[in-house]
Description:
Elements: E1 8-11, H1 20-27, E2 35-41, H2 42-52, H3 57-62, E3 73-78, H4 82-95, E4 101-106, H5 111-114, H6 128-140, E5 146-151, H7 161-171, E6 175-179, H8 194-201, E7 208-211, H9 217-226, E8 231-234, H10 257-273, H11 297-307, H12 310-318
Helix pairs in contact: 1-10, 2-4, 4-6, 10-12
Flavin mononucleotide is lined by residues 12-15, 17, 38-39, 76, 105, 107-108, 149, 179, 211-214, 234-237.
Amino acid sequence: MEFLKENMLFLAPMAKITTLPFRVYCRKFNPDIITCTELISVKSIEYNLKKDDCFSKRLSSLIQQDSVKDRPCGIQLFGYEPESFRKAVSFINNRYTDFDFIDINMGCPVPKVVRPGAGAALLKESKFRTAKDIVSTVIKNTGLPVSIKIRLGWKTPNFVADKYIKLAADEGCSFITIHCRYADDTYGVKPREIDKVISLVEKTDIPIVYNGGITNYEEAEKYWYDHKFKGVMIGRAVKGNPYCLQPKGGHRIDHTIEERIDAFILLLKVMKDYKASIADIFPHIRLLRGIIPRQELNFKVINMVLNHSIEEIQTCLTEKKSLSSLVPEPSI
Ligand SMILES: Cc1cc2nc3c(=O)[nH]c(=O)nc-3n(C[C@H](O)[C@H](O)[C@H](O)COP(=O)(O)O)c2cc1C
């Protein structure tokens, strides 16, 4: 529980983005962040265990840890049956001993997750009992701190965050993260009901982590110091601006072209250390916006990365030579 303190800064779990190499990369900008794997299906753990006790490549990479370079780090699980959680958690206890907490996803609105009753579907009134059973099962079967990550509710304006704060506190969760949108909100909708959630912070002892729309460290400070949240979680802002995790100067506009090139080169180096695939670089290409014309960005960066050494790419970018000298023309 050592990592649970005042003013915690979390990197939000993001599917296909917050891979182990990306989490390690983010720590280069702020070593004090708390990270988490993306959501991992307890059913898929159960299925892989049944097969031959040998995880598929995809599952192994989702659950990959670096016990030195990525701590504290949690594992986020999703599912809809307490028994599947029990099996997955027992397995993690035995085999993946370097996680620092287990987070239960109750916020993902993606159809294939909510259809069987997992993710944000656990916020439906009819699923409250199941949500409670899942939390108590996980807590009973692990010695690790357990948290839940929720949205405001399943359907706007049916606010249930207060009930889930109580659930988390009653069952013995170590903290709860609230993404201040409803499950039927798109990301275009501004985070809502923030004042309502702020008022709940004072009414409970369980630490609450604020999530939604934070774009830099200064904004996080407001939630810690003015609104008394124990933690703040930053998600999408980190893509293309990892500097936002730094205590000073995290605004996107603060960063010079040189700083963005440095951040991109650092990304390539970390990705290379972990033998990440080219697909892992995709979400971060926006670091080079304004340096490479937007319409050419994906093509040029992918070709550059596939065909040239990091040193060549660095020289080319920093000397602002035309990238076309590095990038072969597309063969049509
Ligand atoms: C591409 C993407 C993938 C996400 N994957 C997850 C996930 O695996 N688990 C989860 O709890 N939330 C996931 N989220 C939600 C984020 O953790 C976070 O709650 C949301 O982005 C709001 O925070 P932000 O406004 O700082 O981005 C994802 C969001 C995005 C954009």
